[in-house]
Amino acid sequence: MRILLIEDHxxxxxxxxxxxxxxxxxxxxxxxxxxxxxxxxxxxxDAAILDLGLPDMDGLQLLKELxxxxxxxxxxxxxxxxxxxxxxxxLNSGADDYLTKPFAMxxxxxxxxxxxxxxxxxxxxxxxxxxxELDVVAREARLDGYDQPLxxxxxxxxVLEQLMRRGGKVAPKHLMExxxxxxxxxxxxxxxxxxxxxxxxxxxxxxxxxxIHTIRGIGYxxxxxxx
Length: 227
Ligand code: CA
Hints:
Blueprint: E1 2-6, H1 10-22, E2 26-30, H2 33-42, E3 47-50, H3 59-69, E4 75-79, H4 84-92, E5 97-100, H5 105-117, E6 126-129, E7 132-135, E8 140-143, H6 154-165, E9 171-172, H7 173-181, H8 191-206, E10 210-215, E11 219-224
Parallel strand pairs: 1-2, 1-3, 3-4, 4-5
Antiparallel strand pairs: 6-7, 7-8, 9-11, 10-11
Helix pairs in contact: 2-3, 6-8
Calcium ion is lined by residues 8-9, 51, 53-54.
């Protein structure tokens, strides 16, 4: 389960991340609202933990932008705003749960598990670029009209998903790295390049009509080929 933790307080973020990792969650960290929105565009998260006092925007504003985009992702607000009116406002803005600081790590984890047990509204979501279809829940990619899924490793599939999710926009390499490896994990500087190379080759070998372009110094862009 991959969680996006949106929190600008560095020490608290470190503490929460450590606790979540110990509970077997993968955790990405965004210290600003703008970073979080970038992450959401690129990565499929199972849930998000949202601080309301962010340096560049209010957490509630971020939540509104997120909900406007589609996303049925469960969001838990974690904040020092303890007033009832704040809680109601948070829940009315589309949050699924609300926990106030200070909090016990065990409670945060229990609440996350409860959120993740809820049936997701986006079951069976399929991404499409050219003749490639990727079922983000079944974790399978195939070419339109073929029965057999493409043979992709977990990380290759993740690379493909991130590229397809961008919908004609560049996927920044640093975000892809973060999503693939998580912070602190050992990572050689060309790992994403190697994965992209492999995905590119497999797509070409199977007759996919989409191309992964390298945007030097920035990242990668996937487009459907012209008919
Ligand atoms: Ca804050």
